Amino acid sequence: MPRLKSLEELQQLRERVQSELKARTSASTVITVGMGTCGISAGAREVMYAILAELERLKIDAHVTTTGCIGMCSKEPLVDIQQGNQPRVTYGNVTPAMVPRLIEEHLVRGNVVTEWVVGRTTG
Amino acid sequence: MSERHRADVLVCTCPACTKAGAQALLEALREELARRELTEEVGIVETGSRGFCYMGPIVVIQPEGILYTGVQAADIPELVEETLIKGRIVERLTYKEPSTHRAVPYYKDIPFYGKQMRVVLRNCGVINPQSIEEYIAVGGYQALGKVLTSMTPEQVIEEVKRSGLRGRGGAGFPTGRKWELTRKSPGEVKYVIANGDEGDPGAYMDRALLEGDPHSVIEGMMIGAYAIGAHEGFIYVRDEYPLAVKNVQRAIEQAREYGLLGENILGSGFDFDIKVVRGAGAFVCGEETALIASIEGRAGNPRPRPPFPAQSGLWGKPTNINNVKSWANIPVIIQRGADWYRQIGTETSKGTMIFSLVGKVQNTGLVEVPMGITLRELIYEIGGGGKNGKRVKAVQTGGPSGGCIPTFLFDLQVDYETLKQAGSIMGSGGMIVMDEDTCMVDVARYFLDFLKDESCGKCTPCREGIRHMLGILNRIRDGQGAMEDLVELEALAQVVKETSLCGLGQTAPNPVLTTLRYFRDEYEAHILRKKCPAGVCLPLVRAKCTNACPAGVDIPTYVALIARGRYAEALEVHRRRNPFALVCGRVCPAFCEAECRRGELDQPIAIRQVKRFMADHELKAPWTPPRAAKRYPEKVAVIGSGPAGLTAALRLAQKGYPVTVFEALPVAGGMLAVGIPEYRLPRDILQVEIDNIKRAGVEIRLNSALGRDFALDDLMTQQGYKAVILAVGAHKSRRLGIPGEDLPGVYPGTTFLRDIALGKAPDLKGKRVVVVGGGDVAIDAVRSSWRLGASEVHLVYRRTRAEMPARKDEVEAAEKEGVQFHFLLNPTRVLGTDRVTGIEMQRQELGEFDTSGRRRPVPVPGSEFVMEAEVLIAAIGQEPDLFWLDGTGIEARRDGTLVVGPSYSTTRTGVFAAGDAVLGPATVVQAIGQGNEVAEAVDHYLRTGKVEEVAVRPGYEVVKQIFDMEQYYKAVRPATRELPVEARRGNFSEVELCFDERTAQEECKRCLRCDLEWLEDTGLEAVPVPDRVLVIETAERKS
C-alpha cells in the first residue's frame, strides 16, 4: 500500500475505502462475529467456524468479518447480520448448534429469529 | 468486474432465485442488452447466493454495488434504461428491510444502551480492529491530519486543556496540564507512553479498547507526541492480553505501511513511531514510575516523586504517560472540538467514563456513560439490577484501590470528587456489584490478599501494614476476632494510607476503611455473634442452608437422618433450634432453600416439605422438652404467645426459670393462630406444638392484655417478675389514608383474618371483594375471601407481579383459585354513603429505582376509574399496636417497632423485646430465631446482671451417608401434592399434602452435604467404592 504523503491523500483513501465497504454491505450479506477476548472465551471462534461451514454448505457467498467487544459481554458470542445497508441485527449467546437455524431463517427465509435477537444498530 | 466492461450485471442463479424466475430474467436481460447494443459494454455474470434469496431473484450492478431484489423479466427494460444508461437507481426494486426485522428494538431502546454514550468506545464492536482501512473509513486519522496541517502544538494543548479531560487511569490529573508540563520541560528527547497495565480484578476496559479499536489509541498518542514534542512512544500492555498485543502490533504495522507512523508523517515533517512493551503482569507496574522502570528493563518498583515523569521519566527524559483510555479520547476531542466535549459530564469531570460492570449484576459488560450519571442508573437501569432476583448490597469501584459504596448512597453521581468523598475512587473503571451473598469482610480480605502479593516491598508501611491488616481480617473470618481488632485495623489503615510510597499502598486500605464505615454490622456479626451473614466465611459457616436459617437449624444433619429413616432423632436435632417443626414444615418461607447449593445445579432440596414429613411422622409421640435439673427463682414474663414469645418462654423454662406467657386474645399462638389461615396451618396441628411448650412448664394466661388487663409496672414491681420479654407482634394494619376508609365493608387485613380465626367471619357470600396489597397478608385475605364464598375476588397492587413481596407459590395458588390480579393500581377513594359500593382506582407507572432496588410506582394523573366492590380489605402492611406504650419508659421507632440493642434489651432495664415487635412484620422462623436469642440474653442478664450480646455456637454431630453417585446425579425434586382446587371452595381444609415416606427419604438423598465440605476438619474421610462414595465416621462428635 502506498505511503500517504498528505492530508489530501488520506481523504482520498478514506473515500475509496468508504465506497468499497458500502459496496460490500449494500450488495451482500455481512456477518460480523464479536471476537474480543470476551467473545472468544464464550466460544466465538467455534461459532465463526460453524458459520463458515454452513455458508459453504448452502453455497452462500456472504462476507464474514470480526469485531471487538461491544460491551454486552454477558451476551457473547454476539453475531451481527447486516444486509443491504440496513441496520445490523445482533444475535446473542450464539452457539454453533444455533448457526444452521440462524442462517436458514435469517438469510434463506428472511425472518429474524426473535427469541435469539438482542437488538439492531441505528446506523 | 471484468476489465472490458464498464458495468457488470450479476444475476443470482441459486436454486431459490431460479425458482423465482432468474432464468427468464437472464433471457430478458440478454435480449434487452442486445436490443440496446450494450453487449460490448455490459457483462452478465451468473453468481451464487448472497444470502438474500428469500427476496429473489437478486440482481447486483457492479461497480456501484446496487442491489435489486425480486427482479422479474418485466422489470428489465426499466432497469437497463434507468440504471445502466442513465445511472439512476430504481427505488422500487431496492432491498427493503423485512418487516420482521423492523420489530427488533434499536440498541438505543435496549435498557443496557439507553443511558450509554459511546464516545471512546465508538468503534469497539462495530469495525474490524484488524483493518486500518475500516478505521480510516469511519474518520480515523482525520484528527491527526487536522492537527498536523492546521494546529500548532500549543493550540493542541490548549484544546485538550479546555476540553477538561482528566486522566482516566483513575487519579484524574488534568491531561492538558500534564502535556504542558512535559512540553515545557527542557530537553531534546521526550517520550509518550500509553499505560495499558490493567490489573484490577474484574476490570477489562483497556483490553477491550486495545483489542477493539487500537488505532484510536495510536492516533491519540500521535497527537499528544506532536503537542509535547516527542518522537517515540511506548504502549505498555500486559502479556496476558495476547489478543490486545496482537491487534496493537498489527495496527502499528499497518500505520507504518501507510506512512502514518514513521518519518515525515503526511508530509508535515513530524516524525513519530511506537513500540509495544509487554508487561509481565505486576499490579504495581500500573504506577507510572514503576511502569517506566519496567520499560527500562529494571524491576517494576516505584520511586518517590518528585521528580515527576514530566521532568524526568523514561531514561531520565521528560515523559508523558497517560492511560490508554485518556489517549483514545484525544482524536474525538480534536475532531469534534473541546466545546462539544465540555458539554458532557459534570462541572469538574468532563466527558464519558468507561466502566466494566461485573459481579452480581444481570447485564455484565463494558459500559460508557457520561460523567455524573448516578450509581443507581448505572447499576439498575443499565446493569438490570441484581442477579437472580437477589438484592444488591454495594458496589466496589476502583478495584483494590477503591472502596465499597452501599446502596443507600446509590444516588451519588459518578465523578472523581464525589466518589472520593464517599471513600472510594473513580479508578480505572472497575465496578464490582455485590449482593446479599457477598460478605464484606471477605471482600476486604480478598483485596488485601491480592495487594499483599502485589506490593513490591520497597516501602515498609505497604509491605508490613498490608500483611498485618490481612492477619487481623483472617482472624475475624476465622471467628477469632475481638472488637479491639477493629480499632487496630483502622489505625493501621490510616498509617498505610498516609506513609506509603506510591499509590498502591496509599489506596490499599480503601476497601478496609469503606467496609468498616458502611458495613460495620457485618464485622460485628463475625466478631460478636461468630456469624457470617452472607455465608461466605467457611470457618463460621456449617452449610449455606443452616447459615441462612434465622433460627440456625442444623439442616444437613436432620435431612441426613431423615434419609436414613431416623425421624425421631432428626426431629430432636430440629427442636434444638426450632420447636415448631409442624408449623414451619407448613408455612416457612424456607430461606434455606434459596441458598441451597443443589439449587445452583438443578432444584434446591425440598427442605420445608421433608421437615413436614418428619414432623407429621412423629405426631403421635408427644414431646416433653428436656429441662435443666437446676431451678432458678427469678420469674420471667413473656407478653404475647406468638412464635417469638413461645420460643423464648420454652428456652427459659428449659433453662430452669418459671415462665408465664400473657396473651391478649382468647387463643394462644399469636399470628400463627389468628393470622395464618387454617388452610395453610390447621389449628389442631398448631395446638400440638403449643401443648409441647406447656409441658415444659410454661404457663399461658389467655385474655390478658398489656395495657388493658395489667400494666408493665405491676408486673415488675407487685408481681415480682425479674425480666419481661415483649413479643407483642405486629397486629395493627396500616391505614390506606384515603377518604371513605371507615365505611362499613372496609376491613383492615389483620382484623379480617383474626375475625375468621375467632369464628366471626363476615358474610362474603355473593359479594365482590377487593384486597389491596402485595404481601402475604393480602394473599391470605384473597384466598380466605374466596373460601368464604365471595362472587369475585380481586387483588390490587401498586407495583407489578415481579415486585410482590408475597411468597411465589402462594401467589400462584391464589391465581389457581381464580383470584383476579390487577397490577399498577392504587386506591384513591372509597365510594358509598352507608356502605362500600366501589373504589376509585388510579393507574400507576413504574418510575425511578428506589433504595430497595425496585422501581417506584408513580401515579398517572387523570387515569382514575371506579372498580365496583362491596368489600375492601386493606393489607398494605402491619405494625405493632403500641397503645400501652406511654409512661413505660420504652422507646419505639417511627415505624412502630421497638428500639432494642444487640442484646434485645429495650430502653428499660429488665425489659427485652423480640419478634415482629422489633422486626416489623417478618416471618415465623425469624421470630423463632429471635426467641432463641432473647432467651439467651435474658438468662445472661438474670445470671450476671449484665445486658450484653451473647454468642451461642451450637455444637453439632456429623451423620455419615452413602452416596449412590448415579442416582445422586439424576434425582429431581418431587412435585408438591395439593388438594384439588374444586375441593377447596367453601372450606378451610389444608391445601398442601404431605410427602410419603419414600419420597421424603429419596429427596433427602439429593442433599449435597455441604457440611462435609471439609471432611478432614470434621474428622471424616471419603472412601470411594465402585459407583459410590462412602463417608465414614472417624470422630464421635464435634462442637
Q: What do these coordinates show?
A:
Chain A is of the alpha+beta class and 123 residues long. The mean pLDDT of chain A is 91. The two termini of chain A are 29 Å apart. Chain A has helices spanning 7-26, 37-41, 44-57, 99-109; strands at 29-34, 63-67, 79-83, 89-91, 117-120. In chain A, strand 3 (79-83) and strand 4 (89-91) form a beta hairpin. Chain A is built from four helices and five strands. Chain B is of the alpha/beta class and 1039 residues long. Chain B contains 41 helices and 32 strands. Chain B has a five-stranded mixed sheet. In chain B, helix 36 packs parallel to helix 37. The longest helix of chain B has 21 residues, at 924-944. Chain B is globular and about 110 Å long. Chains A and B meet through helix 1, strand 1, helix 2, strand 2 and helix 4 of A and helix 6, helix 7, helix 10, helix 12 and strand 10 of B.
Compute the average pLDDT of chain A: 91
If helices are DSSP runs of H or I spanning 4 or more residues, what is the number of helices of chain B? 41
Biggest interface goes to:
A-B, 68 and 78 residues
The helix/strand class of chain B is alpha/beta
Please give the largest β-sheet of chain B: 5 strands, mixed
**Strand coverage percent of chain A:** 15-25%
* Strand portion of chain B: 15-25%
- The end-to-end distance of chain B, rounded to whole angstroms, is 84 Å
- In terms of per-residue confidence, which ranges of chain A show pLDDT below 50 for 5 or more consecutive residues? none
